Amino acid sequence: MNVVEAKTPTPDGNNSINKILAWFGTTLGQILVSIIVPALTFLVLWQGYLFLQRAKAPQIVQVLVAIVWGVGGVALLYVVTNWLVMKLPKRISKILQPFVFVGPAVVIMAWFLAIPVFRSLIASFRNYLGTEWVGLENYKFAFTDPRMLETFRNNLLWLVFGTAFSVGLGLLIATLADRTKAEVIYKSIIFTPMAISFVGAGVIWKFIYTYKGVGVGIQEIGLLNAIVTALGGTPQPWLNLPPWNNFLLIIIMIWLQTGYAMVILSSAIKGVPAELLEAARIDGATEIKAFFSIIVPYIQGTLLTVTTTIVIFSLKTFDIVRVMTGGNNGTNVIANEFYLQSFTYTDAGKASAIAIVLLLLVTPIIFNNVSQFNKSRRGF
Amino acid sequence: MAKKTLKTAKQKSTFWNNFILIVICVIWLVPILGILITSFRPSEEIFRSGWWNVFPHKENVEVERIVLPESVDLDGSFEILGKTATFEEFRNTVELDDGRLITWYGNKRTRTAIISEVRWVGFATNLTLKNYSDVIGGKTISYKNAEGQTITRTGNNLGGAFLNSLAVSIPGTIIPILIAAFAAFGFAWLEFPGRNTVFTIIVALLVVPLQIALVPVLKDYVNMGLNGTFLGIWLAHTGFGLPLATYLLFNYISTIPRELLESSYIDGASNFTIFTKLILPLSVPALASFAIFQFLWLWNDYLVALVFLGEKNQTVTIAVARLVGEKGQDWHLMTSAAFVSMILPLLVFLGLQRYFVRGMMAGSVKG
Question: What residues in A contact B49, CB-CB < 8 Å?
Answer without folding.
Answer: 219, 221
